[in-house]
Amino acid sequence: MSSRPPEPAAPALRADARRNREQVLRTAQQLFATEGLGVSLDEIARRAGVGPGTVHRHFPAKEALYLAVAIDELKQLVAEGTALIATGDPAALFTLLARMMANGAENVAVKSALLAAEFDLRTAAPDVAADLTRNVADLLDRAHAAGAARPDVTADEVMALVAGAFAAIRHANAETSRERSAHIAELILDGLRARP
Rounded CA gap, 128 and 124, in Å? Predict the structure, then answer.
């Protein structure tokens, strides 16, 4: 993977500009997942209900939009992980991992485009990637303490298995089938659960 420096921090946006940017990200994420990466920036603008200039101002190239969508998805997963930590549920690890794998299956086109462009999210958004790994580690510690997860598995191994799940889902051509991708994810999660 390329060791490109992380994207510079965006300047603080006005509330309306922030809402527009978030709407563009949500719309792009949905369109990329359902219609593929061929959808134009102008079509994303139209469906997001903003002008083309708004999209082009925030994302001058499609690759910038791919990266922003992927980072936004990571931030959503971090928020979900933080909420799951607050529940105290020892099985919350499996909930977060299932969501991470589903997210990867839904957004395989974006992730593939980033790989092709040699973008590594861990390099592009190291703080967000570290937060997600920390959430997984905290949930794994809780699952270990409750006897819900195999005692010999580490957080790094769990993250490697999630990355492997994306490859397995892609290999099985299961990206467009929630049932098939969820089944593959469940097979992987079963291997992480403690045995009686």
Answer: 9
